[in-house]
Design goal:
heterodimer, A: 367 residues, Gyrase A, domain 2, Elongation Factor Tu (Ef-tu), domain 3, six-stranded mixed β-sheet, 8 helices, 34% strand, globular, B: alpha+beta, OB fold (Dihydrolipoamide Acetyltransferase, E2P), six-stranded antiparallel β-sheet, 4 helices
Amino acid sequence: MTTTSLKETPLACWHTEAGGRMVDFAGWNMPVQYKSIVTEHMATRTAVGLFDVSHMGEFIVEGAKAFDFLQHMVPNDVSRLSEPNRALYTQMVREDGGTVDDLIVYRRTNDYLVIVNASNIDKDWQWLNQHVGQFEGVKLKNISDATGLIAVQGPKAVDLFAAVVGDWVRDIGSFRSGEATVDGVKIEFGRTGYTGEDGFEVIVAADKTEWLWKLLLDKGAAFGIEPCGLGARDTLRLEAGLPLYGHELTDDISPIEAGLGWSVKLKKDNFLGLAALRKQHEQGPQQQIVCLKAEGKALPRQDYKVYNGTKMVGKVTSGSQGIFVGYPIAFALVESESAKIDTDLAIEIRDKHVPARVVSRPWYKRK
Amino acid sequence: MTLSYPAEFKYVKSHEYVRVEGDEATIGITAFAADQLGDVTFVELPAVGSKFKIEQKFGVIESVKSVSDLFMPVSGEILAINDRLEGEPELVNLDCYGDGWMIRVKLSDPKELDSSLSADQYKEFVVD
């Protein structure tokens, strides 16, 4: 018999005491919901939601050749981080084009901070270390355990964050970052998120995470804040058309197939996976992630089969009720011939073929 | 939130309740089941007049989180279904024993109820 103990974020006790329903997410003891997924989803769309994402991984990349190393590791162009306090969404790709992980790279004053998916911390750490050798003097540090990460998201998120940190944070643009000291505690933050809403993701020392969480909740009461679990995080990112590693991106699905071609810079001299991605771009990918809007009320779920007429052309990778838009939605990986916008497909739900149309990404876009 | 289980109802391990009135019964899912499912988005119910045996699947309930089959806690013929659930599936979360009921049946074998659980027995079952 083997026993595995779940990893916990600095907020695990708070979640349990607040009535969070705790589940095993990629080896982490995390809340899937507090009140209800619908309540938390709607609060984030209409007011502000607070998310504990401390389970995510944080690595520091430093050294004179840190830029060259990162430029080699990712398909997006790291030279866009031309000065500190800028952030970039990208992936790491295998030689065959499959995706190792997707991540955000932040340029800081003297180094780079990389934020990766919780489920891939060990894999990414190995992958980076496996390739760092040829970049002399580059040092990698895994600060995941020492670091808390809180996302504050929603139309009132900037008002709340400005009330806590100062009005100047309003001037920080999208995919820009900054740092501040609040009551003597140092925080770093990016105007980034994973919900389709405006807001910030905030890094703080592990032992100050609960303090910051409670401060944001306390000040957030006036703005209609709700703490949100991983359930709402998933329905929000899906509705906003954002991929989730393990679903729309995997070792077998490239960023181009996932519809993230905008973040793949094929004009770069070289990066891991360039040849495979260039070939996919030139020949067109065999398979693609599409957005489906389904009829009826039954919900599409992962692995349900997708048909074009009588031919099975793919499978659902993520599906749910589009809680804000009000109809069932799904990402599906389908053969490229069935991927054009307005193609009428069908999802097999409990032996019935439910009509579903390919629509443009995303289902929800904030005004 | 404490979940309640009315003492006058019968329960089965597949988490449906039975409210018996003479040779008829109203059936829905328990507070425990509704709480586990979370936000209910869709309830698929059978046609009035159809007949089911005990433990046979009579419908499907979907929430944002998951999908589950609904099973007959007794054998019988469907006399009525709760049409309100079509437009307001959240009634299952708000009031599972009242406005969130699912089907009304004519019992074909009331003795089947002898093997169902009392409120106390069901409560013990879900706590374990």
